[in-house]
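We modelled the chain as a single entity of 327 amino acids. Its sequence is:
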Amino acid sequence: MRFYRQKIDIISLLSDINSLLGHHMPKAKAFYMRRKIPSNTSLQAFEAAARHGNFARAAEELSLTEGAISRQIARLESLLNCRLFDRTGSRVKLNPVGTHYAQQIRGTLERLERDTQYIIGLPEGSRGLEIAALPTFASRWLIPRLGHFTEKHPDITLNIAARTEPFILNGSGFDSAVHFEHPAWAGMATVFLFEERLVPVCHPALLNTQDPYQQLNALPRIHRRQNPQAWQQYANEKGIILDNPAQGVCLDLHEMAISAALAGQGVAIVPRMYVEKELSHGALVAPWAESEQISKKFCLVKPAETGINESALQDFERWLLAEINAM
């Protein structure tokens, strides 16, 4: 009874404050309405049953009884007011609604687990950033330099995930992205970082004393799937002839093309900044001129409105710009 009176007093106080501000207070019932969210137990039971297509195997995975799995799914179906499985005797099969819901729930549970593990792993008093980056940029340029960042900012934990295509930053779980400029970033804040320049490279064993441009036509060419016209564009820019410039293997990432070139499988056209170490050590050679026209502009993508990690993101941005300026 005492708690009830306190609850009414709080509602009255909020109503008075809202009246002073010129707003209308929602009815108490609507104000305290609970969200219509299934229990974690029901969602885990459903996800496991959907993945296995079998209640018994889901029960074994979650250390529950088959009856418990069935009851949890029945509660979930009651909440959703629809069937998720078609039942024929003792057999169950996801229906189209259940298939769609399972895909959504699986991603939600995976993200919840990832976010929970991330918080558990944060040292006390530390800050954290989730950064999305292009795979080859992350592996060949960013990650090797993170030691410098940690030295300057030991209280910031930097987590990096690969993203090959632009995406919607809001609601993605990322604080920022290092990516190429793209219309998809409209509405986001972007900071220019650098312009990527491509250069042909190959293993030194593939070359002889002849003119390197003549040899370029004879060497196997390595293509990147996202830019299949790169060799034709390079030939046009440099005024050289390449017989069938589209011929050759096609790989997804610059990292793959670099690995193929290191293995002596042909000549790849890749950003120079990713192979500086190999060129300086002689593992790769680049007797051909760098392209001045085939390029992409890279930027740091940030939310239009900063969040709780604003100070950590500012520290990362300052460090990133300093490292780029030092190249």
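As a brief sanity check on the tokenised model: Residues 1-32 have pLDDT under 50 and may be disordered. The beta strands are 85-88, 91-94, 127-133, 156-162, 176-180, 189-201, 221-224, 249-251, 267-271, 295-302.
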